[in-house]
Write a structure and sequence with these properties.
484 residues; alpha/beta; Leucine Aminopeptidase, subunit E, domain 1; Aminopeptidase; eight-stranded mixed β-sheet; elongated
Length: 484
C-alpha cells in the first residue's frame, strides 16, 4: 500500500474526496462554512447528536461521494499520542473504499509544532507491510491532500521522511528470510548505502583474522557464509569532533550452533540480526536528513550454524581485546560478536559514547515482555537521556542493574571469562556484564537488549505485526534532542 501526500495551502473549496477534521474532546465544530454548504453543516451537527462521542474517531457519509472523519484531541496531547492517532486513523482506511482524503490543518492545534507532521508520521509508519514474496500484492494507493497553513516546513518534512525511510529499511532487513539475507548479501546491501552519503568499510574474514577478531569469527565458522564487520560513518560536522557510536548484533540466522535450539519457533531467528538493522536504519536516517552530528555505526554480521567446522562448547578463543573467553554454550553467540565490535569501535573511533543494540537474551522478555527494552549502562547521564528519548517517542527502555558482584557468575577457571552463567538467574544482566568487560577505556556505554521489542506477533501502536523497527526513532530522538 502506497501513501502519497501533497500540501495545498490555499485550497479553500473541497468538492471531492473524504474530509478529515480535528476537534476537541467535545467534538466542537467551527468555521465549516468555508468547506461545506449550510445544509451540509446542519447535517453534520444533526448526525453528531446520535454518535458515540467517547470514540477517538467518528466517521459518517456526508453524501454518496464524500465521507467525513472527525478526530478528537485531548488537552495537552503529546507528540507520540498524535502519532498513535495517525496510526489509528490508518486502521480505519482498511474498510473505506475511497482512496483520496483531505486533511484540514487549520483546525489542528497551532501551539503544537508539526502536529500534522506527527499525525502523518504515525499514519505512514502504521502503513508498512512486508509482502515482497507474495505473488498478489496490495495495490491500493491512498492520496492525502493537506490544506491550510499549519503544515510542516520543508526541512521538517525531510526529517520525518528520513526517519520513516530508516525505520522501513530496518523493518525490511529484519523481515527478510535467512536464505536471502545471509551475511554475504547483507554486506552487499550495506555497501549500497554509499549513495546516501555514508562512508562504508567492509572487513571480510581475511581482514578480521588479521585483526584478531576471534570471538566474532568463532560464531560464524560453522557456516558456509562469510563473516563480516561493517562500519558506516556519517560526518555531518565540519570539525573532527568525536563521533557518537552505535554497535549492532547481526546474527542473520541463529540455530544455536552445536548447542542447538529447539525446532519450535526457530524460524523466528531470522530476526536475530535486528540490533544491526536498527544501527543501519539509524545511519541511513542521519544521512538522509543530513544530521548535524558525527556518527558511526558498526555491525558484526555472522550466521550461527552447526557445521563440521562449528565452534564447540569448551572451546577457548582470544578476543580482539586480548581477553580470552571459554565457550560454554554456542547459543550465547551475540555477546561474542559484540565483544570484538565494541572494543574495535572504542579503540578506532574514540567516540563520545557507545550504544549497542542486540536481541541478546530471552531472559529480558521474561523481565520486561514487549513493553520495554532492557537498558544496562556504565553512565547515569547517558541512561537518563535514553530514558527521556524513549518516553518522547514511546519506544521505552527500563534500566537494569550492573554490579561487580555479578562478575563471579561469568568468571572462568580456564580462561578470563566464560560466555554464559550456568549457576542460574540474572541471564540478561550477566550478558551485559560480559559486554562491559570489552569497554576498556571507560567510554560512556549503554547496552539495549531489544529481544522483546524487535519483532511483534500481534502488532503495536505504529506497526501492524512483524518487524517493528524499534530503536531507530529512539536513537534519532536522542541525537536530535541532546547532540545536534
Amino acid at each position: 500500500m502506497s501513501i502519497v501526500i501533497s500540501y495545498k495551502k490555499n485550497l479553500s473549496k473541497v468538492n471531492l474526496g473524504n474530509f478529515v477534521l480535528f476537534v476537541d474532546e467535545n467534538y466542537t465544530l467551527s468555521d465549516l462554512s468555508k468547506y461545506f454548504t449550510k445544509e451540509e453543516n446542519q447535517f453534520i451537527n444533526d448526525v453528531l447528536k446520535s454518535q458515540n462521542l467517547s470514540k477517538k474517531i467518528v466517521s459518517f457519509d456526508l453524501n454518496s461521494k464524500k465521507k467525513i472523519f472527525l478526530i478528537s484531541l485531548k488537552k495537552n496531547i503529546k507528540s507520540f499520542e498524535i502519532e498513535n492517532l495517525g496510526a489509528k486513523f490508518f486502521h480505519y482506511l482498511k474498510d473505506v473504499k475511497q482512496t483520496e482524503f483531505i486533511i484540514n490543518s487549520n483546525n489542528a492545534p497551532s501551539k503544537i509544532k508539526n502536529f500534522v507532521g506527527y499525525f502523518l508520521h504515525g499514519l505512514k509508519l502504521k502503513s508498512y507491510i512486508f509482502e515482497k514474496y507474495k505473488t498478489k500484492k496490495t495495490k491500493k494507493n491512498i492520496l492525502f491532500k493537506i490544506i491550510g497553513k499549519n503544515i510542516p516546513s520543508a526541512k521538517d518534512q525531510i526529517k520525518f521522511k528520513a526517519v520513516e525511510e530508516g525505520t522501513f529499511f530496518t523493518r525490511d532487513l529484519v523481515s527478510e528470510p535467512g536464505n536471502i539475507l545471509h551475511p554475504d548479501e547483507y554486506a552487499k546491501r550495506l555497501s549500497l548505502l554509499k549513495k546516501d552519503g555514508l562512508k562504508v568499510n567492509i572487513y571480510d574474514e581475511k581482514k578480521l583474522k588479521k585483526l584478531g577478531m576471534n570471538t566474532l569469527l568463532g560464531v560464524g565458522q560453522g557456516s558456509i557464509r562469510g563473516s563480516y564487520l561493517v562500519t558506516l560513518e556519517w560526518k555531518g560536522l565540519k570539525d573532527s569532533s568525536k563521533p557518537l557510536a552505535f554497535v549492532g548484533k547481526g546474527v542473520c540466522f541463529d540455530t544455536g550452533g552445536i548447542s542447538l535450539k529447539p525446532a519450535k519457533f526457530m524460524e523466528d531467528m531470522t530476526y536475530d540480526m535486528a540490533g544491526s538493522a536498527v544501527v543501519v536504519g539509524l545511519m541511513k536516517s542521519l544521512a538522509l536528513r543530513k544530521a548535524k552530528v558525527n556518527a558511526v555505526g558498526v555491525v558484526g554480521l555472522v550466521e550461527n550454524m552447526p557445521g563440521g567446522n562449528a565452534q564447540r562448547p569448551g572451546d577457548i578463543v582470544k578476543s580482539y581485546s586480548g581477553k580470552t573467553v571459554e565457550i560454554l554454550n554456542t547459543d550465547a553467540e551475540g555477546r561474542l560478536v559484540l565483544a570484538d565490535a565494541l572494543t574495535y569501535t572504542e579503540e578506532k573511533f574514540k567516540p563520545k559514547f557507545i550504544i549497542d543494540l542486540a536481541t541478546l537474551t530471552g531472559a529480558i522478555i521474561v523481565s520486561l515482555g514487549s513493553e520495554y527494552a532492557g537498558l544496562f549502562s556504565n553512565d547515569d547521564k547517558l541512561s537518563q537521556q535514553l530514558i527521556e528519548a524513549g518516553e518522547r517517542v514511546e519506544e521505552k527502555v527500563w534500566r537494569m542493574p550492573l554490579n561487580k558482584n555479578f562478575d563471579k557468575l561469568i568468571d572462568s577457571k580456564n580462561a578470563d571469562m566464560q560466555n554464559i552463567n550456568y549457576v542460574g538467574g540474572a541471564g540478561s544482566t550477566t550478558a551485559a556484564q560480559f559486554l562491559q568487560r570489552f569497554i576498556l577505556n571507560k567510554t560512556p556505554w549503554a547496552h539495549l537488549d531489544i529481544a522483546g521489542m524487535a519483532f511483534s506477533k500481534y502488532g503495536g501502536a505504529l506497526n501492524s505485526g512483524g518487524a517493528t523497527g524499534y530503536g531507530v526513532r529512539l536513537l534519532n530522538k536522542l541525537i536530535e534532542d541532546k547532540y545536534e
